[in-house]
């Protein structure tokens, strides 16, 4: 069994957790274990994907053109 951990909820969430515990007849530690286990076992919504070199160069050229004044200021400093 692991060491006890402290959990601090955002405002309004604590009441919802207490209602859920009462309605489902489980303990707080069981809920936390289930929630964390489910969260870390599912793929997250942000997934990195490789970008083609042509697409990167096109986007970079556009960004440098759009922010030319800021880039020139940085060169002088």
Biggest pleated sheet: none
Inertia-based shape: elongated
Q: What is the H/E order?
A: HHHH
How helical, in percent, are the residues? 55-70%
Number of helices: 4
| Distance between the first and last residues' Cα | 57 Å
Supply Rg.
Answer: 24 Å
| Parts with pLDDT < 50 across at least 5 consecutive residues | none
- The number of strands is 0
Mean pLDDT, rounded to whole units?
Answer: 89
Strand content: under 5%
Give a topology summary.
Layout: H1 13-24, H2 28-41, H3 53-66, H4 68-76
Summarize the structure.
Helices cover 64% and strands 0% of the residues.
Account of the protein in words:
The protein is an all-alpha fold and 77 residues long. The protein is 64% helix and 0% strand. It has helices at 13-24, 28-41, 53-66, 68-76. The longest helix has 14 residues, at 28-41. The protein is elongated and about 65 Å long. The protein starts with 12 loop residues before the first helix and ends with a helix. The relative contact order is 0.05. The model has no long low-confidence stretch (mean pLDDT 89).
Give keywords.
77 residues, mainly alpha, 4 helices
């Amino acid at each position: 069994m692991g060491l006890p951990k402290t959990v601090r909820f955002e405002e309004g969430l604590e009441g919802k957790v207490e209602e859920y515990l009462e309605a489902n007849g489980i303990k707080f530690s069981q809920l936390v274990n289930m929630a964390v286990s489910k969260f870390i076992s599912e793929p997250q919504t942000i997934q990195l994907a490789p970008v083609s070199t042509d697409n990167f160069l096109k986007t970079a050229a556009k960004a440098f053109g759009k922010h030319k004044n800021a880039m020139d200021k940085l060169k002088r400093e």
